[in-house]
Specification:
five-stranded parallel sheet, 9% strand, alpha/beta, 13 helices
Length: 382
């Protein structure tokens, strides 16, 4: 299958994009489009989880204790951040209430979030067959989709029509399919072979949702793993050639993320041709986030490669003392950091990413121009 993705942008282009995005965010603020979508349905992992994992007990980790949630909510909510996550900002930008976690129960006619921290795109038997213990979660993407199928009839007497005006956020998902193997010593070349299977799982879920009536889907790519403090700590090297001299990120890990995103984009293009009546939007989490590292000061970030909450390690992270631990240290200003706890981002970073999806340029079309009945029938690629 021919690639639809151009080679990685030059440094000059990356910086130019970062400047443009920063100016847009500074000048534009967060506009809203009330009535654009009737509901949001979300799937994914800890990047999107708004409280499911904490209701499952141990898989919620530290998200149910301080200092999580301190910036916006003033208390832990089960979100893996100091405040709101991307899903929250999208809901607010579209004039919808914050999307409640599925395990909270209640009335879900304005939307529901099935995302669970630790969730994988692949089922656990995939990892078991490779000798990898993946018992940390049973809420794979397939399981989340099945839960949605069971819930849907209770939301509307005409589910297809109901979904026609709803927004589906499918991810981010797939990160945990790589995180656990990477952090437990599996070889990068072996983990790379997982990527096509991860993409297939995402594709199958998209097809299932389209069959149910989904008309607008936002599908995020992977983040630049080489810029994540936990990865920088685990794969620290004295070899300067392994690092990007401009950002300090690990080159080969970012190339891994780029490979995942290339295959995802190719699959989304195939699905668009199969379903020309459906709007499938690629959310460029990689492009939005890498902009921070190319021009951190433009976004107000003072320590781009360090975690706000963690330990005294080189990148403020340590596997022995993680955020939420009694000995963990917390920065005084989370908005000056990209990373909250070494894996997840701060509310400030999540907000900037969400604005670039709502207003552009990291979603095509931007969500504020993707309202059902008003968008043009075009194919958008990066």
């Amino acid at each position: 299958m021919a690639s639809v993705v151009a080679p990685p942008p030059s440094l000059a282009l990356a910086v130019a994009v970062a400047v443009a995005v920063a100016l847009l965010l500074l000048l534009g603020g967060l506009s809203t489009a009330s009535g654009c979508f009737s509901a949001i349905f979300s799937f994914g992992d800890s990047i999107t989880d708004t409280g499911n994992a904490v209701r499952l007990g141990r898989v919620g980790g530290p998200s149910g204790i301080p200092p999580y949630g301190r910036t916006f909510f003033g208390r832990p909510t089960g979100r893996f951040s100091d405040g709101r996550v991307i899903l929250d900002f999208i809901a607010q930008g579209l004039g919808l209430p914050l999307v409640r976690p599925y395990l909270e129960g209640g009335d879900f006619r304005r939307g529901v979030n099935f995302a669970v921290a630790g969730a994988t795109a692949l089922d656990l038997d995939f990892f078991s067959a490779k000798g990898i213990d993946a018992s940390w979660t049973h809420k794979s993407l397939r399981v989340q989709i099945e839960e949605f199928k069971q819930l849907l009839p209770s939301l509307s007497s005409d589910p297809k029509e109901f979904l026609n005006t709803s927004l589906i956020l499918l991810g981010e998902i797939g990160g945990n399919d790589y995180n656990h193997p990477f952090f437990h010593g599996n070889k990068a070349d072996d983990i790379r072979t997982f990527i096509p299977s991860v993409i297939d799982a995402i594709s199958t879920s998209i097809s299932d949702l389209v069959e149910l009536g989904a008309n607008t889907l936002l599908v995020p790519g992977n983040f630049p793993l080489g810029c994540v403090p936990a990865y920088l700590d685990v794969f620290e090297s004295d070899d300067a050639e392994k690092y990007d001299s401009e950002t300090g990120c690990i080159r080969w890990l970012n190339e891994f993320s780029e490979y995942h995103n290339r295959l995802l984009l190719e699959e989304l293009e195939r699905l668009r041709k199969l379903h020309p009546h459906v709007t499938i939007i690629y959310a460029d989490y990689y492009g939005a986030t890498i902009s921070f590292f190319h021009a951190p000061k433009l976004f107000g970030f003072k320590a781009p490669l360090h975690a706000c909450c963690g330990s005294n390690g080189r990148y403020n992270v340590s596997r022995a003392v993680q955020c939420g631990h009694k000995d963990a240290k917390v920065c005084s200003d989370p908005s000056a950091f990209i990373s909250w706890d070494g894996i997840h981002l701060t509310e400030s970073a999540y907000g900037a990413i969400a604005r670039s999806l709502l207003q552009g340029p990291h979603a095509k079309p931007p969500l504020l121009r993707a309202c059902p009945g008003t968008r043009q029938n075009e194919v958008y690629d990066f």
